[in-house]
C-alpha cells in the first residue's frame, strides 16, 4: 500500500511539474510575441489623364487603354521586365517585390479619372503599366519612388503610345 501511495505521489508530482513547465513555456512564448503595430496604410490620390489620341492602331487614331498600377517594395524587377512578361505573368514576374496590384477599368481617350490608392507601409514605389496594342513602339511602363509627403498627389498621363507617372506640381 505504501509503494502504491508513493507511486501515486510521484505521478502527481511529475504531473504538477509538467503543468508548471508548460505554463512557463507558454508565458515565455507570449513574452516573445511581436508588439509591432499592423502595417499602416496611407491613402494617395492618383489623377489619371488620358489624352485625346491614345493607343492608336489599325488605322484609327484612338482606342481605350487598360492600366495596371503596382505597389512595389523595389523597382528593379519591374524596370527590367519586358512588355509580354508583365502582360502575361505580372504577378509571377514581380514576385516578392509586388506589394499590391490595382487594375484600372478601360479608359477612353480624353478621360480624366481620380483613383484613391491605399498605399501599404512596405511599398516604396508606384509603377504603372499600359496595355498598348502597338506595344513594340510604345513606352508602356513607368515607375516613381513614393513621395514622403502623404498629401502628395500623383499623376498618370497616357498620351499616344506613352505612359508616365509623376508627382503633381502646383502649376
From TrEMBL:
InterPro entries: T6SS_SciN (IPR017734), Type_VI_SciN-like_sf (IPR038706). Pfam families: T6SS-SciN. This is Type VI secretion system lipoprotein TssJ. It comes from Litoribrevibacter albus.
